[in-house]
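Hi support team,

I submitted a single chain yesterday and got back a structure, but I'm not sure I'm reading the token output correctly. Could someone confirm the output below corresponds to the sequence I sent? I've pasted both exactly as they appear in my results page.

Thanks,
R.
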Amino acid sequence: MAAPASPDSAVTRRVVIENCAVATVDADDTEYASGHVVVAGNLIESVGAGPAPEGLANVVRRIDGTGHLVTPGLVNTHHHFYQWMTRGMATDHNLFNWLVALYPTWARIDAPMLAAATQGSLGMMVKGGVTTASDHHYVFPRGSGDLVGAELAAAREIGARITLARGSMDRGVKDGGLPPDFAVETTEGALKATEEAIDTHHDASFGSMVHIAVAPCSPFSISTELLRQGAELARRKGVRLHTHGSETVEEEKFCHELFGMGPTDYFESTGWLGEDVWMAHCVHMNDSDIAAFARTRTGVAHCPSSNARLAAGIARVPDMLAAGVPVGLGVDGTASNESGELHTELRTALLINRLGAHKEAALDARKALRLGTYGGAQVLGRTAEIGSLEAGKLADLVLWKLDGLAHSTIADPVTALVFGAAAPVTLSLVDGAPVVEGGRLTNVDEETVARTARAEARRLARIAAEG
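Hi R., thanks for writing in. Yes, this is the structure output for that exact sequence:
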């Protein structure tokens, strides 16, 4: 699987990883018990069995991957970075009561807080093998500063790719919604600010580090007009659409009472089904809902730990996959998944789905790994660039250490990664550059990130307490 040589191939800086197990997660699930990956600049140049080709020019680094597995970088499809500030709160609440408990605090967030939360949330994921992350940020209190700019600047320092789903809410308490009124925008203001975020930050080029999506929050906190006009805006600008959907039985009841139809039919009536759309959770989906998602190629961000934490239920992931629905994995906000690590979601997704109707046939190790890699790239619309180890794709990859005590008697490396304890990350590359070395973030000081986040979390708690 060698890429065609480029005119400057003789001077391109190369990194060679060899003597490792390789799981490409390509269309054929090609694997090598002992293989190599050659990175040229920011691209994968070759992947194959045995040692790397001889005679490669300008090899600046050669890595002996003995005892390791190399995979595509993990792709997180749903998160709320700001929630790093409120971890460990309302731990025994269902979704509705959890939102009511935490919105008064979230509504006080400002730009420095979000920057600190972004580095905490994204840093934790990157340490655990994430190379591309999507964040759904929908809380924009008045006077909070440039939240989009603050988040993207903080993410840039970490070094991961990001899809910032610019969220919005225009239904506050006075209109029957959940968030405080001073934390919501007007419909017109939200649409204008979302368009400005797209115009300022979205980069549609190959290898882009930043995508912006249009992302009204959820039926509980947005108007039908915001949904409709949001869909029109996204398609006019050529960006993707994201929201929460079918997360709880309460949402199903809410949609029937307010709109006379279930969530999926409501979303379709507002233009929110399509191959450019992905929704978080999708726990309470009947056969008709799944068929509609499959017919329209609407994607799903499966967040198993958060769904369990908030007692939302078990999403029908095996049925979605069988129907042809694109499915990726999501951490969700760290106020409903305190660990905030996507690689643990590989295992959690496999185990939780085996509690459903399909039992032990629900998911296996390789299907779980595909959810966390190619499935995520599919949901974010980036399969031409990331999600599998193939020549010509971006050099976003992870080298997992599997020769320690934790995995010492599991012979199959993919089984070790998914079923076993969380595997240490020896090296993680984004765009061919290291973001993790020896289990440590390379671009920021972890202790400084932790210290800053603690200080900002205390400041948020103090401001919220003062009202």
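A quick pointer for reading it: The two ends are 60 Å apart (CA to CA). Let us know if anything else looks off.

Best,
Support desk
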